[in-house]
Design goal:
With 75 residues, this protein is of the alpha+beta class. It is built from 4 helices and 3 strands; from the N terminus they run αβαααββ. The chain starts with 6 loop residues before the first helix and ends with a strand.
Length: 75
């Protein structure tokens, strides 16, 4: 990586500011910040959802249903 901000790092930074349990709407509340970081992306909502799915698949998040998530703590 060449030091550029990635979607994973940007969304992870936002998640670090949210409580242990949060909603998709909580993350989308930061869409303007993400739009500034990634001005070429015109589909921020979809990219946020995709990034949350990747973090879920990697075990960093648990999907609780109905747009609710829980951060998993490291052992």
């Amino acid at each position: 990586m060449n030091g550029e901000t990635t979607w994973k790092s940007a969304v992870s930074d936002i998640l670090g500011r949210l409580p242990q349990e949060f909603t998709l709407a909580d993350v989308h509340a930061h869409n303007s910040e993400l739009s500034q970081l990634f001005p070429q992306n015109k589909h921020v909502d979809a990219k946020v959802r995709q990034t949350l799915q990747i973090l879920r698949d990697r075990g960093a998040l648990e999907f609780l249903g109905n747009g609710r998530y829980r951060k998993r703590t490291s052992p």
